[in-house]
Design a protein that fits this description.
167 residues; mainly alpha; 9 helices; single chain
Length: 167
């Protein structure tokens, strides 16, 4: 390889796969905001992500898989927001208010995505049901962790273990 060729290659901006994935997820969110999940297409996603169909299919096998990955990340971010908003040193009723207000704020922060979770996800089959179950279990753990404070225990709120049920 010549020195000139090496200089050109090393000066090119190389986008990491994680960056493309992030852009595609943001592109999916933008497509949902623009026309909803059902009416959005892979072309809409890649247009918003400023990338190609080829790149899309290198990261996701389908529009549905991209949507589910977006919701997984959004759900994890919501749980982190709620947990961060609760101050375990304040009285228990203030903690409950903080958690509820954080949950509502997170849901309202991207209303199109929240509505798509409610409207579109249930019709997507087994993979979607798995995501719903995963989110509910994560939410239960979040509530258990938030309620495991001296103030809530003193108020009579006992930590309960979730029962494992198979359906």
């Amino acid at each position: 390889m010549t020195a000139a060729h090496h200089e050109v290659v090393s000066s090119e901006t190389v986008t990491a796969p994680a960056e493309f994935r992030r852009r595609l997820l943001e592109g999916m969110a933008a497509a949902i905001r623009e026309c909803g999940f059902r009416d959005s297409t892979v072309a809409d996603v890649v247009r918003h992500a400023r990338t190609s169909r080829r790149t899309f299919y290198e990261h996701f096998p389908s529009k549905q898989a991209c949507f589910i990955a977006l919701l997984q990340e959004a759900n994890a971010a919501m749980a982190r927001q709620i947990a961060a908003a609760v101050d375990p040193r304040v009285p228990w009723d203030a903690q409950v208010r903080q958690a509820i207000e954080a949950w509502i704020a997170a849901a309202q922060s991207d209303l199109a995505l929240t509505l798509s979770w409610i409207r579109d996800l249930p019709s997507l089959g087994a993979e979607a049901r798995h995501l719903q179950r995963e989110w509910l279990e994560a939410f239960i753990v979040l509530i258990q962790n938030l309620s495991d404070t001296p103030g809530l225990r003193a108020a009579g709120v006992a930590r309960r273990r979730a029962s494992s049920r198979s359906c």
